[in-house]
Amino acid sequence: xxxxxxxxxxxxxxxxxxxxxxxxxxxxxxxxxxxxxxxxxxxxxxxxxxxxxxxxxxxxxxxxxxxxxxxxxxxxxxxxxxxxxxxxxxxxxxxxxxxxxxxxxxxxxxxxxxxxxxxxxxxxxxxxxxxxxxxxxxxxxxxxxxxxxxxxxxxxxxxxxxxxxxxxxxxxxxxxxxxxxxxxxxxxxxxxxxxxxxxxxxxxxxxxxxxxxxxxxxxxxxxxxxxxxxxxxxxxxxxxxxxxxxxxxxxxxxxxxxxxxxxxxxxxxxxxxxxxxxxxxxxxxxxxxxxxxxxxxxxxxxxxxxxxxxxxxxxxxxxxxxxxxxxxxxx
Length: 331
Known about the structure:
By secondary structure, this protein is α/β, with parallel strands linked by helices. Helices cover 28% and strands 27% of the residues. The protein has two domains: 4-117 and 300-328, Alpha-Beta Complex (Quinone Oxidoreductase, Chain A, domain 1), CATH 3.90.180; 130-270, NAD(P)-binding Rossmann-like Domain (Rossmann fold, 3-Layer(aba) Sandwich). It has nine helices and 15 strands. Strand 14 (301-305), helix 9 and strand 15 (324-328) form a beta-alpha-beta unit. It is globular and about 65 Å long. It starts with a strand and ends with a strand.
């Protein structure tokens, strides 16, 4: 077991700005938690980009090791739930905000934050999925729980070129839904079609509010944008339709009204993967193992070394990435 290892550490400066740098740490620097994990991979999410670049106040405690996801192998455990050699993953739970996260070659975590890696996945594959894929699966499950069926009509996915959107497209298509993708990047159209999209619309079509009740168009939707786009989606839902909302890339406000809810009986479902209960997570990972086409996911996944995290963080915040970015923490 190595005494020293590499980790990205965010520190706050005297002027309250933050800096992120790759540092060498000792095992004694890690939090005093029950399970020591030899981390193999993490992933890159929009929140990771904000934390590393300091573009938003994601980090609440300093110093902080960012990375909201991780996958690796247990080295030591004081909790009987896990033993050395177990393959585990962690997503959410406040990692990178209040607790040290996955951009570290070693990490100690509470046993309650860990999920056993499904037998059908490699460690790198779980991070191709990561928080984004878990969130997408939770959204698909939420629509199904609400009774939205493939025969009910088109399902809209906003931000379809991103991590959540691309996985959502694959999962919905696999289940037999007709998927319409919304994106601002026309160059991604062929990639989206290869993932299972039947049609593509420009995100500008949802950018301007045109009334609380519009022509019924969607049986359901998965939205990562929020703001005016979400308001328009709600206004365009078919009678009894539902939208699973999991992001606010376009704004946190919701300029809507009660009309769609009381006249068309539509449902707005909030989906959170950060504090999602362990039992629901395990259900989602079981569905992912059974349903996700990993060959297609590999087509929209990229592996980047931890040593280049600053560049990748800047890219994701600027909207220059698409699909999933796996972080190899050993490089």
